[in-house]
Prior knowledge:
Helix content is 26%, strand content 25%. By secondary structure, the protein is α/β, with parallel strands linked by helices. It has a nine-stranded mixed sheet, sandwiched between helices. Strands 2-1-3-4-5 form a five-stranded mixed sheet, sandwiched between helices. The longest helix has 13 residues, at 2-14.
Amino acid sequence: MKDIFYMKKAIEIAKLGKFTTYPNPNVGCIIVKNSKIVGKGWHKKYGKHHAEIYAINMAKEHARGSTAYVTLEPCCHYGNTPPCCKAIFLAGISKVVIATKDPNPKVNGSGILWLKKNGISVKEGVLENEAKCINKGFFKRMQQGIPWIRLKLAMSIDGRSSLQNGKSKWITCKKSRIDVQYFRAKSDAILSTSNTILKDNPSLNVRYNELNYKKLKSYNIDKKRQPVRIIIDSKNKLTPFNKFINTKGKIFLIRVKYDNFIWPKHVRQLLIPFSKKRINLNHLFLTLGKLKINNVWIESGPTLSGSLLKMKLFDELIIYIAPKLFGHYSKPLCFLEKYSEISKTPKFFFSNIQKIDSDIRITLKKKQ
């Protein structure tokens, strides 16, 4: 029971890095001696100390003979920082309790093996599922090569995404739109299409001024940090003169061929092949995985949404539902094929339902 107690604390502090650690995972560490917590730390930012080092630095001489609780297997290789296993050994920690192995091929059990070979007792698998849950994107990228994909949609209670004339501002209430900012802030990338950019003129960035900083004070959020914005632009509709292009932050344009424009330094064109007259989405997400993107937040119109749903290329479907009626002349939530059997339609299960002011936010996952 005590292992579960301390590991829960390690998982809670690991979450403090959820806005800042990209492309690294969120990791927490608690060091315990004589039933007292003598050190704690979490990975705060890519390139900075890992959780174990912060905890060891806090514990100082009290680390000798202690037990460390770590949410992810300590590394034993040199990367941007020295190996944590060696630091654990030098600190004199006698036992390490680990929630889950690191899926990174550079680690993946080698850290555990190193600790055991050097006389440190190791216990694995304490709250393993809970520890994996806070790093869904990192685990998926390491194991499948593609990011964790959240598809966001907003609709009226009759399932419409905009009026017949295309107007969609605003379907949802202000608090729902602020809620979206939190999801954007936690994402490594925001994906949309050039059609959405040209129609709605969104910035697709995090509006930090709308976030509750009293609530987020402990997360060390960098207000300058913006997710990568990825725009599917297969027909090269966007130009360097579009307002969207001249906003701050890295932009990837997903295309089939380059154009002749000179683009700003923050804009990069990525060539992705066609499949059935559309950008090959499987190829796109594999490319994003190679670029170390763990979590993608998608905001788009009914065409891309329909493609993602048909291909089951998403992990979570997040729908904001407003108590409004648009009528049957309005545009649907997504474009799907014409089904003749209910048994053949896409199926989901509810994983979360939450009321946000006048709206409801539902989170769905696909049935396997």
